[in-house]
Amino acid sequence: MQPELQPIIDEPALLLKEKKLLVIADLHIGIESELREKGLQVPSQTNVMEQRLISILTTNTIQDIILLGDIKHNIPSSTIQERSDVNRFLNTIQTYGALHVLPGNHDGNIDRLLPPTIKLHPSDGFVFEGIGFTHGHRRPNKEVMQCEQVIIGHTHPTVMLTDRLGYRTFEQCWLRSTPLSDTLIEKYPTSPTSQILVMPAFNPLCGGIAVNRDPLLGPFRSLMDIDNAEVYLLDGSSLGKVKDLKE
Questions:
Q1: The whole model's pTM is what?
Q2: pLDDT tens string 177-196
């Protein structure tokens, strides 16, 4: 029996209630410095994200917290402010539960910023409570794909909505898909994976990929049946399948 995964309404966060587990992805702490270089003066979101996350953690009973990649933003090196913010953020959040970090493509040298009490997992994924977790920027390991449920981030999925006047808006969304059987069997012959869930980014400044217009990022683009993937907004609204939302 698959564990019941419950997206938190109006938040890009995933709850596994019976296991007291919370999952978020794509914090991108320090992204403001890149935006400033492009002429956009944006206040730091680190404190805002910290308070949002603390609110979720104190509202629910949580024992374990998984940060599913891209904790920091700047590559290959981090600014002094970014290093300070990452360290302070992690130290604060770990007081609310056992903290697990899975490195994403923006997390080079993240091990240097982690307090010693935080568990660092391999970047090709790990299994926790029978669920496979991987950031999504590289091919996941065999153990992850042998799980019935696989959770990824990396893509920052959004859906492009167009009104009658042609005005476009982009809304963060969840993407739930079955795998492409032939591709999956070829790459992971013993895989029983039956569901892949793509998480929206926790940092609202990240932007994202419009799943009904643009291809997904990373190797899961060829592992997922994206056209038949189901799209859900953060408020829980079901928009149907990706193929039905394309222009």
A1: 0.92
A2: 988 776 666 776 666 778 99
